[in-house]
Amino acid sequence: MSAPLPEYPAKTHARYLMHLLDTTGAIDFDGDASLPTADLFLPGSGRMFAVMTALDEAGNEVLLKAFSGQLGGRRTIEGWVPHPLDAHAYHAYLAEHDPPIKEMGSAIEACSDEQKSAELTEQRAHLSRTALRAYNALFRLTAIDGTSHSLSEIFGPLPIPTGSGECCEPKLFSWAFAHNLRPVSMAQFFYGSGREHRSFHPPCQERCAPILASLLRLDIRYQDRDLVIVNKPSGLLSVPGNAPDMQDSVETRVRALFADAPRQCAVHRLDMDTSGLVIVAKHKGALSAMHRLFREQRVEKEYEALLEGIVHDESGTITLPFRPDYSNRPCQIYDEKDGKWGTTEWQRLGVEKRPDGSFVTRVRFIPLTGRTHQLRLHSAHPKGLGHPILGDRLYGSGMRDRLYLHATNIRFTHPTTGEELSIETETPF
Question: What Rg do the C-alpha atoms of the chain give, in angstroms?
Answer without folding.
Answer: 26
